[in-house]
């Protein structure tokens, strides 16, 4: 073991790094240290990661945080299949999609209290159109990449919550998004990281009532 990944099984940001670890075959090199976010141990903030958030990675005597930074760090510093495209056009599009990911997440969360369809139609349509850019595979850049890793944990949760609670189907009229979800669900790197749908609904309901 040469690294420790501090994570929480319920957290979509931490799930990004967990998927990356699995996809690169680093299960024996990076140990998962799951934390309970409702009851964070005092040592974590004091000794490990002062911002007290997950994910955080302990590697080579350093602590690194922020999920997308960690995804890139694992890709650059460890062996295993690359998740960064070589093609310049794909690289550029990857940067655009990664910088849009926070907007996507924020828009969907804020729609829970509003007119869901009106507010989330444009963001899910944007994903559908983005999935049409490269047609050499079902993923955002054609082949599986860090862009899918950035989006899939949120798509997974939004699909469950929007459909069960708000009766909105994110895949209706969006065949490419449906195909992305179907293909992601076949990935051995992703399957063990999926969260129980009931937990998602409960966590999002809590979030709603706290707003």
Could you walk me through the main structural features you see in this protein, from its secondary elements to its overall organization?
The chain is an alpha+beta fold and 211 residues long. The chain contains 8 helices and 4 strands. It has helices spanning 12-23, 42-48, 67-77, 88-111, 116-130, 146-164, 175-184, 197-210; strands spanning 3-7, 30-34, 56-59, 62-65. Strands 2-1-3-4 form a 4-stranded mixed β-sheet, covered by helices on one side. A hairpin with a 2-residue loop joins strand 3 and strand 4. Helix 1 (12-23) packs across helix 6 (146-164).
Rg over alpha carbons: 17 Å
Global outline? globular
Query: What class, by secondary structure content?
Result: alpha+beta
Round the mean pLDDT to the nearest integer and report it: 96
Question: H/E series, N to C?
Answer: EHEHEEHHHHHH
- List the uncertain runs: none
Share of helix, binned: 40-55%
**What is the number of beta strands?**
4
**Strand order in space, largest sheet:** 2-1-3-4
**Share of β-strand residues:** 5-15%
Question: Given the structure, what is the number of helices?
Answer: 8
Give the N-terminus to C-terminus distance in angstroms. Answer: 41 Å
Sketch the major β-sheet: 4 strands, mixed
Organism: Linum tenue
Family: Belongs to the GST superfamily. Lambda family.
EC number: 2.5.1.18
Pfam family, one: GST_N_3
């Amino acid at each position: 073991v040469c690294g420790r990944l501090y994570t929480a099984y319920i957290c979509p940001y931490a799930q990004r790094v967990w998927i990356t670890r699995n996809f690169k075959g680093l299960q024996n090199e990076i140990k998962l240290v799951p934390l309970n976010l409702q009851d964070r141990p005092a040592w974590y903030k004091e000794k490990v990661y002062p911002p007290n958030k997950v994910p955080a990675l302990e590697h080579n005597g350093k602590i690194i945080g922020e999920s997308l930074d960690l995804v890139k760090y694992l890709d650059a510093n460890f062996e295993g299949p690359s998740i960064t495209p070589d093609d310049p056009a794909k690289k550029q599009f990857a940067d655009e999609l990664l910088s849009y990911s926070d907007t996507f997440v924020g828009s969907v969360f804020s729609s829970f209290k509003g007119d869901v369809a009106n507010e989330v139609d444009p963001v899910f349509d944007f994903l559908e159109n983005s999935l049409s850019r490269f047609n050499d595979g079902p993923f955002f850049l054609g082949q599986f990449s860090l862009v899918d890793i950035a989006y899939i944990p949120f798509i997974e949760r939004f699909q469950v919550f929007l459909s069960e609670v708000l009766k909105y189907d994110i895949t209706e009229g969006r065949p490419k998004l449906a195909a992305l979800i179907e293909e992601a669900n076949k990935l051995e790197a992703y399957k063990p990281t999926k969260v129980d749908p009931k937990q998602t609904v409960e966590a999002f309901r809590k979030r709603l009532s706290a707003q």
